């Protein structure tokens, strides 16, 4: 029994550590995104070298965030992995289907504005959150 409690504590500690690491990488990537998006206009007057460096930093940090997400997923138990992967599949599917349809709306002139990637990212994030909530309720 004591061995089972120790394994549970180790799993909880590993998940907490991986979650904190993922949050750090995600926050850093968010800051790098803001720097790459707003730096050229507000900080360095569209100077090419800082802009390229900002984009490269954004990419490198983004791949670090992907690696942190992979470590986080690998550290979860099987049920938590299933919930996460189901939510990710839902977000990817909704993002692909709605994103293509959204882009087509402009192409066929049913909307007068240009579709923005930020709208798609928000939709996918909300879909992912709903998928996590529904998955946790389903397997409670």
A few lines on this structure:
The protein is an all-alpha fold and 140 residues long. It is built from 4 helices and no strands. It has 2 domains: 76 residues; 64 residues.
Provide a descriptive summary of the structure in words.
The chain is mainly α. The protein folds into 2 domains: 1-76; 77-140. Helix content is 86%, strand content 0%. It has helices at residues 2-42, 48-75, 78-107, 117-138. Helix 3 (78-107) packs antiparallel against helix 4. The mean pLDDT is 94.
Q: What order do the helices and strands come in, and which of them pair?
A:
Blueprint: H1 2-42, H2 48-75, H3 78-107, H4 117-138
List unreliable stretches of 5+ residues. Answer: none
Roughly how many Å is the radius of gyration?
A: 19 Å
In N-to-C order, the SSE pattern is HHHH
Overall geometric form: flat
Bin the helical content: over 70%
End-to-end gap: 23 Å
Tell me about the largest β-sheet: none
Number of domains: 2
Structural class, from secondary structure content? mainly alpha
Give the total of beta strands: 0
Strand-residue proportion = under 5%
Q: Counting H and I runs of at least 4 residues, what is the number of helices? A: 4
* Overall pLDDT confidence: 94
Keywords:
single chain, about 140 residues, mainly alpha, about 0% strand
